[in-house]
């Protein structure tokens, strides 16, 4: 069963950009390993070098919106977002009919719950259940309903396809940014200053402060410092919080674009030419720009 419940981020820190950095070094293999796995790598290997280059040139032309044969960070960032949003839309379009059980063009809260949970859920906002497991389930359902209501922005009952996309893929829809930030602040911002410190980010993971940090804590600290805390002030502001909880946001896409240009730009003009890209074709393939290689296997009229 496809479940849309968003679980606690404390158990999901490592889901965001796992292994994107090894120590202080960027790991280009991360991208293929996480999102494609062995099957994706095998598919890429099936293409001859000539075919890889030909398809890469097609992608570069699509990204180069002003047709000046140079890719800017802005063009690359917008392309990354476009690719992911296309996949999210395709997923929403595929699943929407399953949830719209009465075929009226909208997914109601009851329809959603019947498909996902197999029964209609009545929520009590005020009563805290004594059983910890039941209370945890009630809390998750309340968060789910809140996200559903936030996505239902047109005032008419039920979710349209666009609203269903926002509900199921909030990180791909700009209108959901405020909800996403409010949600993470409610869970992590213990001092209510609108920022998330490293202590708040890690949470209460050690009962004894004198204990040696676990490997998980070390890895999460590195991720906080090197991937999310872009201004290195020891805390996450709004944009940095989005980079954490909505890794496909514009700010995240732009960071990846800037990284690629830094790695591949040989003449120092802060842009990428076709020649520079083809000279570093494997780095470009192992990035969000090509959706970790997937873009070499689709027809680009689809985007």
Automatic annotation (TrEMBL):
Q: Which InterPro entries match?
A: EF-hand-dom_pair, EF_Hand_1_Ca_BS, EF_hand_dom
What this chain does, per the entry, is described as: Probable molecular chaperone assisting protein biosynthesis and transport in the endoplasmic reticulum. Required for the proper biosynthesis and transport of pulmonary surfactant-associated protein A/SP-A, pulmonary surfactant-associated protein D/SP-D and the lipid transporter ABCA3. By regulating both the proper expression and the degradation through the endoplasmic reticulum-associated protein degradation pathway of these proteins plays a crucial role in pulmonary surfactant homeostasis. Has an anti-fibrotic activity by negatively regulating the secretion of type I and type III collagens.
Q: EF-hand domain location, by residue? A: 51-86, 87-122, 176-211, 252-287
From the UniProt annotation, give the residues forming the signal peptide. Answer: none
Gene3D superfamilies linked to this entry: EF-hand
- Localization, UniProt: Endoplasmic reticulum lumen
* UniProt record similarity statement: Belongs to the CREC family.
Question: Quaternary structure per UniProt?
Answer: Interacts with PCSK6 (immature form including the propeptide); probably involved in the maturation and the secretion of PCSK6.
Q: Please give the Gene Ontology molecular function terms for this protein.
A: calcium ion binding
The record's GO CC annotations read:
endoplasmic reticulum lumen
Task: Please give the name of this protein.
Answer: Reticulocalbin-3
User: One of this protein's GO BP terms?
Assistant: protein transport
Q: Major location, coarse class?
A: endoplasmic reticulum
PANTHER family, per this entry?
Answer: RETICULOCALBIN (PTHR10827), RETICULOCALBIN-2 (PTHR10827:SF78)
Highest rank taxon of the organism: Eukaryota
User: Which keywords does the record carry?
Assistant: Calcium, Chaperone, Endoplasmic reticulum, Glycoprotein, Metal-binding, Repeat, Signal
């Amino acid at each position: 069963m496809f479940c849309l419940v968003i679980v606690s981020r404390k158990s999901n820190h490592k889901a965001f950009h796992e292994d994107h950095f090894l120590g202080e070094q960027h790991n280009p293999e991360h991208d293929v390993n996480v999102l494609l796995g062995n099957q994706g790598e095998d598919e890429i290997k099936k293409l001859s070098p000539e075919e890889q280059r030909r398809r890469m040139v097609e992608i570069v032309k699509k990204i180069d919106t002003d047709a000046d044969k140079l890719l800017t960070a802005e063009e690359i960032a917008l392309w990354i977002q476009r690719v992911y949003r296309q996949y999210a839309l395709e997923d929403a379009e595929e699943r929407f009919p399953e949830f719209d059980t009465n075929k009226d063009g909208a997914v109601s809260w009851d329809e959603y719950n019947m498909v996902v949970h197999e029964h209609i859920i009545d929520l009590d906002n005020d009563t805290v259940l004594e059983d910890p497991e039941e209370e945890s389930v009630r809390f998750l359902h309340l968060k789910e309903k809140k996200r559903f209501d936030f996505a239902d922005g047109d005032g008419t009952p039920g979710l349209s396809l666009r609203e269903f996309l926002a509900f199921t893929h909030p990180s791909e829809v700009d209108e959901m940014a405020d909800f996403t930030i409010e949600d993470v602040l409610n869970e992590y911002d213990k001092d209510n200053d609108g920022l998330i410190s490293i202590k708040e980010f890690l949470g209460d993971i050690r009962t004894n402060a004198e204990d040696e940090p676990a490997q998980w804590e070390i890895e999460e600290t590195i991720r906080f410092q090197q991937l999310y805390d872009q201004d290195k002030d020891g805390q996450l502001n709004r944009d940095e919080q989005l980079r954490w909880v909505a890794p496909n946001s514009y700010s995240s896409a732009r960071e990846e674009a800037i990284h690629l240009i830094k790695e591949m730009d040989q003449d120092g003009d802060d842009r990428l030419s076709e020649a520079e890209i083809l000279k570093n074709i494997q780095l470009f393939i192992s990035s969000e720009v090509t959706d970790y290689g997937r873009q070499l296997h689709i027809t680009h009229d689809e985007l």
